[in-house]
């Protein structure tokens, strides 16, 4: 007996394929979750303003043209950082787990159901690859803690300050 069928009732491999094909569901036939309205609109804005082309051009110097396997595209990398920021996730492992778990975020990243989101080590390697050396900002869009954090990371800042008189950044960051 094979699967409860006697020898004379067994199906040929062709017949078995036909039976299984009736019950087979492809990933394209599965329903897709509606994208989160926020991420759908954000993707639309990024697309309208040519974000992916812009970051590709800005980050071209950090990527080798022919060495090794292709790197994480900058557009996906920065979208992963946005997910971390908007979802309040401060670890690369957490961002990766959240991206793998959410159909809406997979859609935001441009990943199909069968695509695997980038691994946390890929995100980390990309972060180390793209070096930020200086920050330029307008006055009023930062806090004293932000300036102190940038100084700790040894990132040169060009931030104009309103006229507040002499400031002691170290003492003020301890109070805040």
Indicate the percent of residues in helices: 40-55%
The N- to C-terminal Cα distance equals: 77 Å
User: Which percent band covers the strand fraction?
Assistant: under 5%
For the biggest sheet, the summary is: 2 strands, parallel
**Computed CA radius of gyration, to the nearest angstrom:** 25 Å
What's the order of the H and E elements? HHHHHHHEHEH
Please, could you describe this protein's structure?
The protein is mainly alpha-helical and 176 residues long. The protein has two domains: 37-129, no CATH class; 134-175, no CATH class. It contains nine helices and two strands, in the order H-H-H-H-H-H-H-E-H-E-H. It has helices at 13-23, 37-48, 51-59, 74-87, 92-101, 103-109, 120-129, 144-152, 169-175, and strands spanning 134-137, 156-159. The chain has a two-stranded parallel ribbon with strand order 1-2. Strand 1, helix 8 and strand 2 (156-159) form a beta-alpha-beta unit. The longest helix has 14 residues, at 74-87. The protein is elongated. The model has no long low-confidence stretch (mean pLDDT 75).
Features:
single chain; 5% strand; 9 helices; mainly alpha; 2 domains; 176 residues
SSE diagram, text form:
Layout: H1 13-23, H2 37-48, H3 51-59, H4 74-87, H5 92-101, H6 103-109, H7 120-129, E1 134-137, H8 144-152, E2 156-159, H9 169-175
Parallel strand pairs: 1-2
Helix pairs in contact: 4-5, 5-6, 5-7, 8-9
Compact overview of the structure:
With 176 residues, the chain is mainly alpha-helical.
